[in-house]
C-alpha cells in the first residue's frame, strides 16, 4: 500500500498549496496556477495567472471579475483527466452549485480527494454529488458538528405557503438564489418570485448553461403591492440587512446558520453544505485511510474517528 504524503497539501497564506505539482487549490490571494472548486467568492478569487476549473465556474468568475486583467482559464469537463506535473487530476461533481467540483488528485499511487463545498441534498439547479473512493479525504467541515442537522428543504420551503403576506427573502446571489427559485416554483407555485437586480444576471447565466426551468420576474414596486398576490422578493444579504426596518413584508433569510435566523419573522433552514450525518455517510462511501479537515471545525470528526481513522486539520 502506497504511503500517504503528510505534506501533499499544506496551508499557506495564499491558500492550500501542493508542492508536488506547484499549484494552489482555492487560493484567496493571487498565485501563478489555481485549481478552483467553485465560483463562490471565498473559493474563487481574482488575480491568478492560470485558473483550472469547470466551464460553469469560469463563466461565473468572468462575470464577477470581468474588469480584472490577465486571467487565463483552462476548463475541464467532469471526469476529464488532465495532469499538472506528475499529478493526475479529475474534477468530480460536488452538488454544491452549478459547476462545483471536487478535485481528485492522484500521485505515487495515492488518491487525494479535495471536496470543496458539497451537499448530498437534491438540487435541480446543479449537477448531483458523485462519490469516488480515495485514500485521503480532504473535506470541508463547515457544519461538522453532531448538534447540527439540516431539515428537508422541501419541508422548509413549503412553510412559505402558510404565510399569506409579501416576503423579503434574503439569499446568496449565486447558487442559493437559483436553488430557492426552483424550490419555490415547484412547491409554492402560487407565489411569484421577484428578483433583485444583482441576482437577475446570475439567473440568466444559469439559463445559458441549461437551467431554463426557473420562473421569475425582475423586481418592481407595483408587483409588491398587488392585493392577494403575496410575492416573494429575493435579495442578496447586504440588501436584506439594509432593509431591517422594512414594513409590510415578512423578513426571511435562507441559511443553515442559526445566527442568521435571529430577528427574522420566521426561520428557513436551507443549506448548501453537508451536515454531520451527511459527512459520516460520505466518509463511509469514500472509504479513506485519513481525513484532513478544512473550512471549519474538525475536532468533532477527530473525536468520532479516534479509534478508526487519522483525522487532522489543515486549518
From TrEMBL:
Q: Name one Pfam family in it.
A: RMMBL
Which segments constitute the Zn-dependent metallo-hydrolase RNA specificity domain? 270-305
Query: What GO molecular functions are on record for this protein?
Result: RNA endonuclease activity
InterPro entries per record? MBL, Metallo-B-lactamas, RibonucZ/Hydroxyglut_hydro, RMMBL
> Out of the domains of life, which is the source?
Bacteria
Domain (Metallo-beta-lactamase) spans 30-156
Q: Which residues form a coiled coil?
A: none
Q: What is this protein called?
A: Putative mRNA 3-end processing factor
Amino acid at each position: 500500500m502506497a504511503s500517504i504524503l503528510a505534506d501533499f497539501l499544506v496551508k499557506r497564506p495564499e491558500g492550500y498549496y501542493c508542492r508536488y505539482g506547484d499549484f494552489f487549490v482555492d487560493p484567496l490571494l493571487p498565485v501563478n496556477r489555481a485549481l478552483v472548486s467553485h465560483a463562490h467568492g471565498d473559493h474563487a478569487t481574482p488575480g491568478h495567472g492560470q485558473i483550472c476549473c469547470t466551464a460553469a465556474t469560469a463563466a461565473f468568475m468572468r462575470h464577477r471579475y470581468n474588469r480584472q486583467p490577465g486571467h487565463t482559464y483552462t476548463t475541464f469537463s467532469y471526469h476529464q483527466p488532465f495532469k499538472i506535473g506528475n499529478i493526475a487530476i479529475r474534477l468530480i461533481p460536488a452538488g454544491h452549485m452549478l459547476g462545483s467540483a471536487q478535485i481528485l488528485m492522484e500521485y505515487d499511487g495515492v488518491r487525494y480527494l479535495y471536496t470543496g463545498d458539497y451537499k448530498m441534498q437534491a438540487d435541480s439547479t446543479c449537477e448531483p454529488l458523485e462519490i469516488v473512493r480515495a485514500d485521503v479525504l480532504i473535506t470541508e467541515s463547515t457544519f461538522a458538528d453532531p448538534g447540527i442537522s439540516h431539515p428537508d428543504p422541501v419541508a422548509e420551503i413549503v412553510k412559505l405557503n402558510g404565510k399569506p403576506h409579501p416576503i423579503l427573502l434574503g439569499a446568496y446571489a449565486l447558487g442559493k438564489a437559483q436553488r430557492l427559485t426552483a424550490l419555490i416554483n415547484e412547491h409554492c407555485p402560487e407565489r411569484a418570485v421577484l428578483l433583485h437586480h444583482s441576482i437577475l444576471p446570475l439567473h440568466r447565466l444559469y439559463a445559458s448553461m441549461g437551467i431554463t426551468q426557473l420562473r421569475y420576474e425582475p423586481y418592481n414596486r407595483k408587483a409588491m403591492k398587488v392585493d392577494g398576490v403575496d410575492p416573494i422578493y429575493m435579495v442578496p444579504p447586504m440588501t436584506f440587512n439594509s432593509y431591517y426596518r422594512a414594513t409590510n413584508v415578512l423578513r426571511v433569510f435562507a441559511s443553515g446558520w442559526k445566527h442568521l435566523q435571529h430577528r427574522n419573522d420566521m426561520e428557513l433552514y436551507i443549506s448548501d453544505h453537508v451536515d454531520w450525518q451527511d459527512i459520516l455517510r460520505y466518509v463511509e462511501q469514500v472509504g479513506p485511510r485519513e481525513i484532513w479537515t478544512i473550512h471549519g471545525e474538525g475536532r468533532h470528526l477527530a473525536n468520532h474517528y479516534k479509534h478508526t481513522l487519522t483525522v487532522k486539520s489543515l486549518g
